[in-house]
Specification:
4% strand; single chain; mainly alpha; 3-stranded antiparallel β-sheet
Length: 236
Amino acid sequence: MRSVHRPSSLTDQAVESIRVAIISGDLVPGELYTATELGNQLNVSRTPIREALQELARRGLVQIERNRGVRILSTSLQSLIEVFQIRLMLEVPLARRATQLKTVATAAAVEEAYEAFRRAAENGDPELVLRADRDFHRTLLAGAGNDKATQLLSEQRDFVLQTGVGTVPTSRTAQECFEDHRDIMEAFRQGRDAEVGSALARHISHTATMLITQETRDRPEFADARSAEAIDWLVH
């Protein structure tokens, strides 16, 4: 794991370092870790570690076991479906609202995030693409002016990432990931809020299906025919 440096909140830095370690697989789902063990790896005292673990437990990334430590949670099919359902419920109307409220400043911010996404896709590095993808969504939705919803969606994205680094490069290339956002961006540029919403719903549904199929290769319990219906009812 990355060592924590001290300029800002140690708890916040510990949250981020542990979160990244979970996503990268350095901390293994199902395994039990102690606060002391994690503190030694991050070179941080137990208090910030405990506070960080409480926050990660709230997000659903870990489970605290009294007098034993913390267990890294694996993602169930139902949990994964619920995350994408939440994304469809929140992101689609937020994106439409962001389009309706678009200003010169918010449009410029979205263009900048989209351009950064394009550069990351050309680079082909999965980590860069993942970050640029996240930043594009976050910047677009920020235009709706609902910080609480944006924060919740950020946490849900973290939860999904427990399943791996994402669909890139396992199920699609970096360029394919970028191209899957093109219709969202074109509709946003034209100020067509309904089209932004439908394009975003298509994208989220497509990503959900791809990620569930990807997980099924190693986890047969993910092969549930009802999973498509659980997502589709929010799209149609």
